[in-house]
Amino acid sequence: MYKLYNVKAWGSVSIHCLLEEMEVPYTNIWMTPEQVRAPEFRALSPLGTIPALGLADGHTLFESAAIVSFLIAAHPEKHLSPVPGSPAHGEFMSILHFMSTELYPTTNIALGGSGYASDEAQEAFIKARARDRADGYWQFLETRLAASGPWLMGRDFSALDLYAFMLSLWGRPSEEALHARFPGIAKLATAVRARPKLKAVLESHGVMKLGGYTG
Ligand SMILES: N[C@@H](CCC(=O)N[C@@H](CS)C(=O)NCC(=O)O)C(=O)O
């Protein structure tokens, strides 16, 4: 049985949704930010980040894209990605890694760039630059959706849509503003919220309603 280390509306949202869509058994472990930042948690997630996924053999995985990749490979019969090894799967991995290595960290900086700045003016500048950069990345996803939506893998809903949905919750200056600029993303997020298997989990994170993320 998996163990999901989870914080409300943090980076575990996509994994929580993926586990629910897959209908695989797991234990959900709600954590507070203080518990995540406590030194003991680093024994499980060495960088002190959420999400982390405990496996039955006692190992714990960290890094969201690695966890998505693990789950889709462990449960291919759930069809939440193209068939591993196929060209479409390669494309899926490109988009997943683009989101986790470019859009996710840029979004983190747009949310709070204090770790990169020595005063408030610098922080405001860095956050604004990160927001502009994130907009460019969202435009890339929007263009892809306009060409071959409604999901990021065309007509097939996949784990990518859950990941993009999670990132859209943190859109700056607000989720609503992100939706206004990127209608394909707005449509995707609305369709994710309408998925019956996700209702309870999205409510548990407080993000069932547009603008629910207030961090
Ligand atoms: N590259 C990591 C980033 C994860 C990340 O930034 N998680 C944030 C929450 S969204 C976190 O755990 N921050 C720790 C903290 O704020 O103390 C991943 O994809 O899993």
Give the name of the CATH architecture of the largest domain. Up-down Bundle
What would the CATH topology of the largest domain be?
Glutathione S-transferase Yfyf (Class Pi), Chain A, domain 2
- Name the average pLDDT: 97
Bound molecules: glutathione
CATH first level of the largest domain: Mainly Alpha
What spatial form do the alpha-carbon principal axes imply? globular
- Strand percentage: 5-15%
Termini gap: 30 Å
Labels describing this entry:
215 residues, alpha+beta, Glutaredoxin, Glutathione S-transferase Yfyf (Class Pi), Chain A, domain 2, four-stranded mixed β-sheet, binds glutathione
Please describe what this structure looks like:
This protein is α+β, with helices and mostly antiparallel strands. The chain folds into 2 domains: 2-78, Glutaredoxin (3-Layer(aba) Sandwich); 87-205, Glutathione S-transferase Yfyf (Class Pi), Chain A, domain 2 (Up-down Bundle), CATH 1.20.1050. The chain contains 9 helices and 4 strands. Strands 2-1-3-4 form a 4-stranded mixed sheet, covered by helices on one side. Strand 1, helix 1 and strand 2 (26-30) form a beta-alpha-beta unit. Helix 1 runs antiparallel to helix 6, helix 4 (87-111) runs antiparallel to helix 5 and helix 6 (159-169) crosses helix 8 (183-193). The protein is globular. The model has no long low-confidence stretch (mean pLDDT 97). It binds glutathione. Glutathione is lined by residues 10-11, 36-37, 48-51, 63-65, 100, 104, 108.
